[in-house]
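--- STAGE predict ---
source: upstream dedup step, 1 unique chain passed
mode: sequence only
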Amino acid sequence: MLENKNMGTAVVTGASSGLGEIFADRLAKRGYNLKLVARRKDRLNALATKLQSKYGIKVTNLVADLGAAADLENVVNDLRADKSITLLINNAGTSTVSPIIKTSVDKQKAMVDVNITALMLLSDAVLPNFAEKNEGTLINIASVLGFHSLPISAVYSGTKGFVIQYTRGLQEEFKGTNIRVQLVSPATTATELWDVAGIPLSALNQATIMTVEDCVDAALSGLDRGELATYPSINDQTLIDTYEDARIRLFKGSQNGQVAERYLEN
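--- STAGE serialize ---
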C-alpha cells in the first residue's frame, strides 16, 4: 500500500456519492488531503466534515456541474494553479441508457460533456504540473461498456471508448516517467448512475452487481500493483491477457499499404 504521509492533494470528481465518495474515504485514510468536486453542496460539506474529523486531513470542496462550461472552466483553473495536487481521479460521469432515437440531443450532449470533455480538460489541467515534477497519478474511470456496446448504450459506450483510448495514449506518452496513468473499467456497480440512466438496479441481475466499496478497493489494489488497466470484476486474467494481445496484434496487422486480399476482385 502507498505510504500514509506526505501524499499531497488528491482530486476526486463526482465525489458526493457512489465510487467518488468511497475513493475520497480511502484516499483520506492513506493520508491525502482532498479536493472534492461535485454538484451537491450539502453532500460535499457533510462528507468533508466526516473525513476531516475521521482522518485529520484537509478537505476543500469545489461545487460544480462539470457539464456546464463555466463551472468546468472554474475547476480547470483551480486545478491548474494548485501545485499540491499529486493525484486526480476522473470519476464523474453521466449516462442515459436508451435507444438513440428515444434519447434527447441534450442528454446525448450531456454524456459527451461530462464523460469526455470534462475528463480531458481536467487531465490537461494537472498533467503539466505532473510533468514538471516528474511525479503524479491520474486515474480515469471508464467502463466495460467502453469495449462493448448494447442496443441502448451507443452514446455512453462511445464516451467510455474515448476514455479507454485516451488513457492508453497518455500511458504511452508518459511511459518511462514517474507519472502513473491507470485505466479502471468497472462493470455493473451499485451507484446512483443507474437512476440517472433510467434503469433501476432492482431490474438487473443481482449477481452481477458489485458494491462501490469492493470496486474502489479493487481499483486501488490495481494501482498498488502497478496495473495499467484494472478490471475489478474480471476474475480470469487470461481473458484480459488475450484481449490485450489480440488488440495489439490487430493493430500491427493493419500496418500494411496493400488492400486486403478479400477485397480484391477475382
